[in-house]
Every structure is written in C-alpha cells, then in structure tokens.
Amino acid sequence: MKHFKTYLAAMALALAGCQSATSADEITELWYAQPAKVWMESLPIGNGRLGAMTYGGVEEETLALNESTLWSGQYNENQDKPFGRTKLANLRKLFFEGNLSEGNRIAGENLSGNQTSFGTHLPIGDLKLQFTYPQGEITDYRRSLSLDEAISSVSFRAGGVNYKREYFATNPDSVLVFRLTADKQKAVTMNIALDLMRQAEPSVEGNQLIFTGKVDFPMHGQGGVSFEGRIAVLADNGDVKMDKEGVSVKDADAVTLIVDVRTDYKNPDYKKMCAASVKSAEAKSYADLKQAHIQDYATLFDRVAIQFGKDTNRTVPTDVRWQQVREGKTDTGLDALFFQYGRYLTIATSRENSPLPIALQGFFNDNKACNMGWTNDYHLDINTQQNYWAANVGNLAECNAPLFTYIKDLARHGAKTADVVYGCKGWTAHTTANVWGYTAPSGSIYWGLFPTAGSWIATHLWMQYEYTQDKKYLAEIAYPLLKGNAEFLLDYMAEDPSTGYLMTGPSISPENGFRNQGSEHCASMMPTTDRELAYEILSSCIQSADILDVDKSFRDSLQAALDKLPPIRLRANGAIREWFEDYEEAHPNHRHTSHLLALYPFSQITLEQTPELAEGARKTIENRLSAENWEDTEWSRANMICFYARLKDAQEAYKSVQLLQGKLSRENLMTVSPGGIAGADGDIYSFDGNPAGTAGMAEMLVQNHEGYVEFLPCLPQEWKDGSFKGLCIKGGGEVAADWTNAVINKASIKATANQTFKVKLPQGKNYKVMLNGKEAVANPDAKGLITVDMKHGDLLELL
Asked: At residue 247, does pLDDT exceed 80?
C-alpha cells in the first residue's frame, strides 16, 4: 500500500518545528526530513569491525551490511619479482648518468609486482525490511544520526500510530542492533529478507536467519574469505514465522534484530564466534545493550567539544544545509558538525579490537571502489595516512591500534620484498597494499614504484609517541618497526657520485610524471617526497634511540646518513621541486602534492624556521590550484586545509573547508572522489576526506609544530566566536579555548605527561597565567613565549 504521497509535507513540518528534538544546543546530529534514496544519502553506523548504512525507508527499509574482513584475494608468495642489488646498482648508474629513458624502460619492465590475487574489500549486501501499516497518511517523518550516542533513528506517524526505529553497532557486544517500536500494541507487521551481493546459502536455526558462503570476486584475482552471518529475530508478542527465504512478523508490539557477520580471516573459529556473539546479545535486554553501547562510545567521543558561535540552523535538515554550502552560503554550525563527523567515523571504523585498520572506504562499501581498477584497498601514498590524521589531535589515540598491528604485518612481509626486489635489509612497502601481505610494487611503476610508502605509514608510529609520550609503547611497538624501516633506508640509499648526497631510487613522486628531453617519465633518483620521508624516519629513530638509551652505534649511523641527505630545493619559478632536478611537470593539474609533506603533516618546512621554503610551498599550492582542470578530490582538498593552516592563511583554509563540505561531500556529509578522476564515471565514496578535513580544521585552531603552542593561529572571520576543548597536542597535552570576536577569553593546557611547554601568549588583552589554580610568574620572551614546566595532570590556564 502506498500512503506516502510525498515527503514535501514532512519537510515543511520538519523545517517549522522539530524543536523538541533539536532545541538543546548540546545535540550533535545529522537529520533529514525524508528517507535516503541512494547510498550517499544513507547514514553510517559501525563498531570498528561491523557496520551498516541505514536508509530509513518507510514501507521498505534498506540496511546495507558491511564487515571489515570481507575480502577477496589471497596471499601470493610470488608477489615479489626478483631484481636484486647488482641489477639495482646497474640501473642506478643509468639514472646517475642522466639516461632517464633507458632507466625508466628497464625499471618499468622489472620493478613491478605480481598482483594476480590482490583482492579487494567487498560489501555483504542488504537486509530488507518491508512493513504494513494502518490506513492513513504518513506524517512527521524524521531520520537522524546522533553523533553523541552513535545511534541512527527513524520516526514517523502512520495511521494514527507513532513508529520509531533505532539502529546502532555496539562494540562491547560486537553486533548490530536494530529496534522497531510503535506506541500502539500489535502495530508492527513486517517481512525480513536478504538481498546479498555475495553468494550464500540461507538456513534457519530457531529464531535465527543464517547465511553462509565464500567470497568469489574474480575481477581482482582468485581467492576470498569464507563468511557466516546470523540475524536473530526477537519479537515482543506477535506471530513470527521463520523460513530460509525470509521471516514474517505479524502484530508484534516491537521487534529487535541482532545481527553479526564473521569471516575466516585470521579466525578459524568464525562460525562459533558468530553464533556466540548473537546468542550473548539476544540474552540481554535492549535497554542494557543500548546503555552499554552509549557508555562505551561516549568515553571516546565526549572527549572533544567544539562550536563556532551559536548554531542558528539546527531546525534545517542537514541535506538542505549541505546544499546551501554548495551554493556558497556560510554555515558555521555545519562546520562544527563536519569536524565531529570525522571523529565519529574514525571511532566507527577503527577501535582497539578492530581486526583491520581503515581501508579506502573504511568498511562502508558502496560497491563502486571495489569495481574500479584501483580497488577498495590500502593506498599507502596518502589515503591510508589521511584516514588516521584525526586520531591523535582528535583525542582518539586508541583508535590507532589496528593501524599499528597492520604495520607490523606489513613489516613481516615487507622484509621479503626488501630482500628479493632490492637486495636490502629491513622492510619496505609500496603504494598499494591489501590484507594478504602485499608489499611489492604495484602493477605499473607509474603509481607503484614508491618504496618509501612504508616509511610514510611508519611515521604514524612516531606521531603516536609524540602525542602520548608513552615510552612503553615506544620501546615495544614503535621503535622496532621504525628501526626496521630505517635499516632498509640505510641499505637502500646510494651515494650520488656527482653530489655526494645519499639518494633513494629509482622511485616516483606519487602518482605524477615529469618531462625531460621531450619525453614523459615517472621514475628518477630521490624525488622530494623520498627525501622528506627518509629525513622523518631517520630523525624519529635517532630521537627514539636517545629516549630509550639504546643502539648508540646504530643511532650514529642514522645521524651520518641524515647529514648526507640533499636539502629541499626550489624550482626556477620559486615553487618546491617535486623531483631532485628541476624537471617540468607533465601534469601541472595533478591531485598529488607529495613533495609538500614537509609542510604538513611534518614540520621540515615552517613559516618561522624556513620562510623561503614556506613561500615556495605557497607558490606550489597556487600553481596547482590555478592549473587548468585541477584534479580537485576529497583528499587533495583536505590537504589544502592543512597546508593553508600551516601557512596561517585563514581565508584560503576556510575556503577549502567549504569546498570539501560542499563540492566534495554528499548529502550524508561523507566525502567523495568525484567523477572524472582516476577513471571514475561518478562520485565514489572515499573515507579520507572526512578525518583529514577534521585534522585540518584542528590545525586552524591550535598548532605546536614550531616548538611552542599557539592558540587560534589560523582563525577565519567566520569563526570569530567559538570554543573547543579536548584537542590534543604533541608533547602530551589536552587544550581548550574560548573566544569572542577573535579574542581569546580563556585558554588552557592540561598535561597528560611530564613536559615543558612553550606557549605563545595570545593578543587582545593582558592574560593572567595560572598553574593549578595559582597565579604563576610568566616572563614572556621577545616572541611573546612563556616556558612552563608541567607534571602529568597539571593545568595551565590563560585568563
């Protein structure tokens, strides 16, 4: 029956008066006055392993199911094509002699990997719910995602009955929970069916619908996991009929569905675990499941609060606000919501007990990336890194745990790659990686010959220590992995006979090319990104060895190598060189700007320490953005927020915030790689823009990469009033600030480790410096910096 004539009436009602649901300023939510029609309008829930996209349909509900280990592919023992040290030396001789054409030809023929069983992450498919309602109109429709509670809700009135649904993914109980209720008895009548994208055999066991299968997706090679899913149907009264083709529920007061899916990825007991998790969860009351979920989630999410003045648009649906931003309107309330959304998605997809880190789409798979040539995998030339940019600054350090476990796995397989491909010690990994230990170069050197991709992802190990100051973590997890990558770099780099510099290569600047003597090439010796990554790894290993008081002779060898790295250099036009030589860019509009890693996330280029290079970075950015057909993607635009924040260009940074939210996101605020980029014929969801955007916005609010803490270093006029609390800084501290008309009313640092902080006193008034509630003697230097020794738990306030 079709009672849902139109959603326009519901939209009008929502715009006019959802005051009861949105009047409290504390509520952080996305909400809509109509169901989702397509995937990019649906709302994500996740517990770090298992998730769903909720559509909120009235007569038919779609719940798109996802599990992080549902992968095709398998381990390939022949992924590494042997090359070795002698051939590498001969190849480098060609490059050092300037014979780039021959060098690129040989590299292209020999330095690519075997990706025949690479695989991809895949969606499971949909759980479909079809409903029967009393006669009457559908009114008062509202669909929402509470970021405060990580609960997706749907409510409406049908035939005089108020219906409500709540959906959440609980980490403590490791299942999905769907609850459907009505304010009238016997008002819930529905059919439950599966519309899977994977071949599976259905069966029924008691009150559970079960589906069992094995992934078969030959597009990206043979192999795939085996899986089992269970859906427990718990009806409050009513009549339930179970059949392997589906389930019918008639005249129930309420229905609760408990869902789990498990695979055999590193988990031979997956079927037993799936049965046990569902059995355990269905033995608990819905109220207990919900309470445990909220309490667990809130311990992470509630650490950070943020607002940019009063949100005057709370009564406007999120998709309407999003459309207004696309059209050029400013919405600072949406800015704050977008910031917290990046943290929400990080929590949803990466928890301490997650079996895998965040992939290209997290695990919210739209069935598009996995059908592209580039697959839904781990891209180690920026995407996976950006997925975790919000974790530390966003006070979610625990969410990094699965990434570090994954890096350990990469190091194990990457040791073979280092040996077989390059004849080197240590470990390496290249541009594309999967869950099966793929660390070899990709199928083409144009994007795949990037041996410092492993170094880039390894920098997150040191970053975690910088924020947490956890020496036990440094000794047991970070330093051994960093050391292994540093051993590779020491053994891999060669001395340039003409300059004496230590050089990597042949390698690429992802995923760009250059012109030389009338030809386009990709491979060269020591592209700038390699230099920056080698510098970062060697430096962090030196500092780690000093902190832990270990490996003195190894530490000295690292310092000797560090001293022989080439400097970052400028082009004739004043921009940063992307390659060691001042080559002409083959694609000036290219989305990648890997040679600016030194600006962000690293601090090898800063406004104060290297002003000439900072100006060169600005020139590089301007050239990219002004190039014809600039490849503006979600992650490259998020990069621009971060870059401009470091350059303290508030208006350009904010312009990129708005472009990321509007042009490069969709109705559900999830970021997209737009059609036309990398072969896509339409928008494809990509996880990275959300957390990287959050990280860039945080960088606009607080910085300490220059060696001191600075509040509001890149504040746009649009954020002239606001506050935040709970953001983290390197050195071990949580920071907060409150400001009016761009003048700080108060700011604070709470030490989470023993540390000496330098703090730049804000402008605008004479601030009283308080340490643990007592006024402290503050003698600012010529730069307005004060130095404060703090112990763990100390509170420094500027009032």
From this structure: yes
Contact 22, 318 (CB under 8 A): no
**Per-residue pLDDT tens digits for 28-37:** 999 999 999 9
Q: What is the pLDDT of residues 347-395, one digit of tens each?
A: 999 999 999 999 999 999 999 999 999 999 999 999 999 999 999 999 9
CB 521 within 8 A of CB 100: yes
- Write a three-state SS string for 431-453: CEECCCCCCCCCCCHHHHCCCEH
If we measure between CA atoms, which residue out of 723, 729, 684, 681 comes closest to residue 704?
A: 729
Distance, in Å, from the CA atom of 447 to the CA atom of 495, rounded to the nearest integer, reads 25
H helix runs in 208-351, sequence order: 270-282, 286-301, 318-326, 332-349
If you count them, how many residues does the chain have? 799
* Cα–Cα distance for residue pair 40/69, rounded to 1 Å: 22
Tell me the sheet residues that pair with 257. Answer: 178, 233
Cα–Cα distance for residue pair 233/773, rounded to 1 Å = 56
Q: Which residues pair with 699 in a beta bridge?
A: none
What is the DSSP secondary-structure string of 91-151? Answer: HHHHHHTT-HHHHHHHHHHHS----TT---B---EEEEEEEE--SS-EEEEEEEEETTTTE
- Classify 736 as helix, strand or coil: strand
Integer angstrom CA distances of residue 543 from 18, 106, 349, 474: 55, 38, 31, 11
Q: Identify the H or E element spanning 544.
A: helix 528-548
CA Rg value for the chain: 27
How many CB atoms neighbour CB 66 within 10 A?
Answer: 28
**φ/ψ of residue 765, rounded to 5:** -165, 170
Rounded-to-integer distance, Cα 270 and Cα 280, Å: 15
Report residue 398 as tokens: 């625990």
Are 452 and 533 spatial neighbours (Cβ–Cβ below 8 Å)?
yes
Inter-CA distances, 206 with 242, 243, 245, 275, Å:
8, 10, 14, 12
Picking from 360, 364, 473, the residue whose alpha carbon sits closest to that of residue 732 is 473
- With cut-offs at 50, 70 and 90, classify the pLDDT of residue 6: very low
Strand order across the beta sheet in which 519-521 lies: 519-521, 514-516, 584-585
Please write the tens of the pLDDT for every residue from 77-130.
999 999 999 999 999 999 999 999 999 999 999 999 999 999 999 999 999 999
Q: Which of 228, 229, 227 is nearest to 217 (CA)?
A: 227
Report yes or no: 134 and 160 within 8 Å, Cβ to Cβ. yes
Two tokens at 452?
Answer: 């410092």
Distance CA 263, CA 382 (A): 28
Give the span between the Cα atoms of 715 and 742, in whole angstroms: 7
Buried residues in 33-47 as b, exposed as e (16+ CB within 10 A): bbbbeebbbbbbbbb
CA-to-CA distance for 313 and 327, rounded, in angstroms?
Answer: 16
CA–CA separation, 488 vs 430, rounded Å?
13
Cβ pair 134, 182 in contact under 8 A: no
Residue 547 DSSP code = H
What number is the average pLDDT over the span 172-200? 98
d(CA 253, CA 790): 58
